[in-house]
């Protein structure tokens, strides 16, 4: 992956560019964003990006000054500039500073993708040329391995014939293992990556396990052993986990299929890299290979087109709201798991799954805030927990995070016993009569069959659920009408979206119309 640093003084533009396209699919990774030129210079030194996207006009150090400073320091980073129509003269000056092009605001997605595709080809050529230059100076085992992995790179025939044996690279099989490491919410820095690479060299090269190398943002191991056996995969993963046990970071490990020739390790690398990119759909704590079953395999396959028409975030949020209201931790867990597995079965992307669950959580918090003003004082904590959904690297970890967060919004345990359950149900109706209460939805959060819960409710109260709910709403309506509130507002306040329907219910239980009652 080629690293990208986005620089713009407007937060909405920075985040918009970050989410506008699928960077990974195009071979890029947005490593950071910067709010001005000085910030960008500091983050350039930290990340050493391959591409910078820079706004022309920024406070402090402008985009032009930033680019000029980079060029004075002989930095060969590629630059795309952002400008408005009024900044065209600035754009022309920036192009003179050896930039790769400019984009007019608002940025057009197709135009940006075109630039990135062209730049990716250029970056690959530059990487290959750089490595070939380095290989001329010194051919060690790592660089021999790297030379077989970079497209377009060619190993000298003399090296293939005379030096592979000396380098101990004539093996029966070759398997590429890749590790992707990440700190809390950020990629690890180059210095830390090199330090960790040293640990792997000591653990695996000096014991004859294989050759350790770096490529893109990975630490790689070209292993001698065939990892088709589960026991060997577990042992290797255990060794890697032990090396990283003292580090405050998460990691994903994946291996490609074994190949019999050194010149074929590129296919093993590509397969391992693909598994890493799909790590969200695999359980953590294991070495991912072709033999590893993704978690989506545990759910029935559903037509992906059904995702848009069947899935209802509002309905799920309502059920979760009720489950939180009565403190039913089990129902919360089951509802989150059910909707997550549904999205997996639909073939939804990682981003879609995270965005959908974040939307549901946001909707739940909004509902809770309407009934509990104290929720508003926890805004920062709640926002951080929602943002953390997008930082999870595996589906199972994300699901547990969402469940724990929702259960923590009202840390109570569900009361057992039929009578107490119905009492909780009555309390819920009294507090939430304005909501779209349905017996089916409540049955889900009380862990009962809908028909059976209806019978329990009738036995305990002497009323059918809908009748009881209507009577509660009508009693609340009578209070509001007595205060002089207009009929259509009263209907809305007590949970009736249709005024005519409210009229019929009110007349049924009171014997007169809401208007007449208001005049009494």
Strand content bin: 5-15%
What is the 3D form?
Answer: flat
Low-confidence stretches: 134-138, 298-302, 304-310, 411-416
Quick check: average pLDDT? 82
Class per helix and strand makeup: alpha/beta
Counted by DSSP, the helix tally is: 23
Spatial gap, N to C terminus:
75 Å
Q: What is the helical fraction, as a range of percent?
A: 55-70%
Structure described in brief:
This protein has helices at residues 11-20, 37-47, 63-72, 88-96, 109-137, 141-149, 157-162, 190-205, 230-243, 265-277, 306-310, 313-325, 329-345, 350-371, 379-389, 395-408, 418-432, 439-446, 450-461, 465-482, 487-493, 499-510, 514-519, and strands at residues 2-7, 28-34, 51-55, 78-83, 102-104, 175-182, 210-215, 218-223, 250-255, 287-288.
Describe the structure.
The structure is a single chain. The protein is of the alpha/beta class and 520 residues long. The protein has four domains: 2-124, Rossmann fold, CATH 3.40.50.2300; 172-292, Reverse transcriptase/Diguanylate cyclase domain (Alpha-Beta Plaits, 2-Layer Sandwich), CATH 3.30.70.270; 306-408; 418-519, Orthogonal Bundle (Arc Repressor Mutant, subunit A). It contains 23 helices and ten strands. The protein has helices spanning 11-20, 37-47, 63-72, 88-96, 109-137, 141-149, 157-162, 190-205, 230-243, 265-277, 306-310, 313-325, 329-345, 350-371, 379-389, 395-408, 418-432, 439-446, 450-461, 465-482, 487-493, 499-510, 514-519, and strands at 2-7, 28-34, 51-55, 78-83, 102-104, 175-182, 210-215, 218-223, 250-255, 287-288. The strands form two sheets. It has a five-stranded parallel β-sheet, with helices on both faces. A five-stranded mixed β-sheet has the order 7-8-6-9-10, sandwiched between helices. Helix 1 links the parallel strand 1 and strand 2 (28-34). Mean pLDDT is 82; it is low at 134-138, 298-302, 304-310 and 411-416.
């Amino acid at each position: 992956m080629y690293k990208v640093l986005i620089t713009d003084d407007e937060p909405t533009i920075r985040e918009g560019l970050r989410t506008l396209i699928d960077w990974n699919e195009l071979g890029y990774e947005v490593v950071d964003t910067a709010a001005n030129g000085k910030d960008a210079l500091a983050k350039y030194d930290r990340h050493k990006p391959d591409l910078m996207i820079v706004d022309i006009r920024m406070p402090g150090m402008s985009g032009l000054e930033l680019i000029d400073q980079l060029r004075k320091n002989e930095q060969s980073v590629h630059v795309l500039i952002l400008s408005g129509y009024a900044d065209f003269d600035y754009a022309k000056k920036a192009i003179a500073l050896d930039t790769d092009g400019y984009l007019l605001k608002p940025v057009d997605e197709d135009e940006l993708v075109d630039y990135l595709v062209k730049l990716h080809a250029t970056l690959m050529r530059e990487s290959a040329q750089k490595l070939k230059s380095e290989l001329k100076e010194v051919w060690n085992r790592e660089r021999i391995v790297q030379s077989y992995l970079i497209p377009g790179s060619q190993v000298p025939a003399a090296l293939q014939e005379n030096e592979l044996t000396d380098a101990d690279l004539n093996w029966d099989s070759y398997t590429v293992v890749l590790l992707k490491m990440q700190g809390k919410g950020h990629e690890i820095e180059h210095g830390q990556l090199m330090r960790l690479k040293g640990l792997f060299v000591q653990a695996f090269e000096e014991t004859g396990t294989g050759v350790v190398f770096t490529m893109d943002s990975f630490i790689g191991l070209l292993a001698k052993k065939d990892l088709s056996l589960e026991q060997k995969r577990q042992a290797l993963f255990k060794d890697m986990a032990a090396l990283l046990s003292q580090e405050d970071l998460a990691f994903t490990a994946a291996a490609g299929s074994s190949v019999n020739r050194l010149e074929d390790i590129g296919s093993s690398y590509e397969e391992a890299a693909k598994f890493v990119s799909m790590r969200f759909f695999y359980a953590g704590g294991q070495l991912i290979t072709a033999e590893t079953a993704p978690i989506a395999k545990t759910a029935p396959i559903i037509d992906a087109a059904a995702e848009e028409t069947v899935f209802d975030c509002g309905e799920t949020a309502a059920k979760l709201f009720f489950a939180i209201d009565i403190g039913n931790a089990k129902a919360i867990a089951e509802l989150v798991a059910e909707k997550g597995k549904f999205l997996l079965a639909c073939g939804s992307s990682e981003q879609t799954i995270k965005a959908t669950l974040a939307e549901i959580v946001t909707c739940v918090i909004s509902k809770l805030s309407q009934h509990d003003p104290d929720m508003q004082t926890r805004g920062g904590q709640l926002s951080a927990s929602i943002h953390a959904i997008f930082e999870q690297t595996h589906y199972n970890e994300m699901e547990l995070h969402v469940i724990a967060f929702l259960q923590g919004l009202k840390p109570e345990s569900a009361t057992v016993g039929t009578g107490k359950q119905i009492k909780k149900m009555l309390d819920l109706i009294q507090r939430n009569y304005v909501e779209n209460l349905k017996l089916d939805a409540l049955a889900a959060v009380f862990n009962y069959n809908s028909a059976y819960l209806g019978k329990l409710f009738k036995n305990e109260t002497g009323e059918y659920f809908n009748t009881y709910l209507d009577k509660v709403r009508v009693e609340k309506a009578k209070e509001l009408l007595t205060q002089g509130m207009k009929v259509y507002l009263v209907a809305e306040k007590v949970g009736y979206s249709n005024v005519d329907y409210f009229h019929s219910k009110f007349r049924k239980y009171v014997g007169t119309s809401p208007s007449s009652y208001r005049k009494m």
